[in-house]
Amino acid sequence: MRKPAEIEDLSGVVRDVLGSGCRVAAVDRLRGGSKKGVYRVRVDGTPMPSVIVYSWAEEENFWPGQDGIDLSDPFAPASGLAPFLAAQRSLDSLGVRAPRVLLADGSRHRYRADVAVVEDISAGTLEALFERDPARATTALNDLAEMVDLMHRHLGPNYGRVDLLEQGGTASGVACEQLVLDRALRDVEEASGRDRRIAAADGHLRDRLHGLATLVTPRAEYGLIHGELGPDHVLVDADGHAVLIDIEGLMYFDVEWEHVFLQLRFGKRYPVLSRAGLDPQRLALYTLAMRLSLVVGPLRLLDGDYPGRAFMHQIAEHNLQEALALLP
Question: 3-class SS at 149?
Fold first, then answer.
């Protein structure tokens, strides 16, 4: 049975950051985390009223079947203190805002798992701000657009997650478009075993993926992308600036992959984030591949005991219908 962290679990690590005079008054597990626990810890006796604690404890990861995964695969589930810190360093070097790290500890002496304490950007997500304060959200969206453009224009000769590249590792030797194609074909196979509608369209989906992939021309430089940059992964600070969270998957890759996700998640607001010069052939291939991924991923998550089940079913169903609508 999963047991979230409580006051007595996190008091020690928070006092190490804020001083022995602080008292932990409340601990709340924030919604949405599927690979790590995210806790808002409210304190008394210090000028800082709260902090956020990330816990990479095994019981905080809701994704089943992680054994045997090739961790060098850019699409492998990204989680852990090392990817988080590498991403934080990369973003900081570019001047891209992420929550400030107050403490990071992988020793397991302070806490039973790898843990990080970061500043609490308590003003909320950009997603919520669109509903609550559209004018302020527009300012933050423009700020986000500048950050995204800065990241995407920061090019590297190899693709892969930044933590692996930092260590001298490399991803698979195949081109990004081949990697996406291979993954999408596996997603078709898995989805066919889960839903009769995908099974009925299996051959058509495979033909379409192969046809789109043949139109993509080679590329030798890759931009820095977040990987899952939706408005729920953007906080807005007190000054109205965008702040990126869930950054562990930061990697060098085709920026079109990010733009497909941005378009899906930001919808009518996407034009603010768009840019000239994107490859339309890559966009076409990656759009279908992304839709298939967003069918299989949620269904795979539901094989476990993830609590937000209705929402995950909705994501899978919506993207299934969108994937089938992309067939000629």
Answer: helix
Distances (CA, A) of 146 to 149, 183, 274, 297: 5, 31, 11, 30
Nearest to 259 by CA among 275, 246, 241, 242: 275
- Alpha helix segments (H runs only) across the chain: 7-18, 81-94, 126-132, 134-152, 162-166, 176-192, 196-200, 202-214, 255-266, 280-301, 309-325
Q: How far is CA 211 from CA 207, 260, 311, in A?
A: 6, 19, 33
Point out the residues of the chain with pLDDT beneath 50: none
Q: HSE, CB side, 13 Å, CA atoms: give it for residue 143.
A: 22
Look up residue 186 and give its amino acid: R
Torsion of CA 225, 218, 279, 318, to 10 degrees: -60
> From CA 10, how far away is CA 22, in angstroms rounded?
12
Q: 234 and 139 in contact (C-beta within 8 Å)?
A: no
Topology of the domain comprising 7-119: Phosphorylase Kinase; domain 1 (3.30.200)
pLDDT at 27: 94
CATH of domain 126-325: 3.90.1200.10
Q: What pLDDT is attached to residue 2?
A: 63
Q: Rounded to an integer, what is the distance from CA 137 to the centroid of its chain?
A: 20
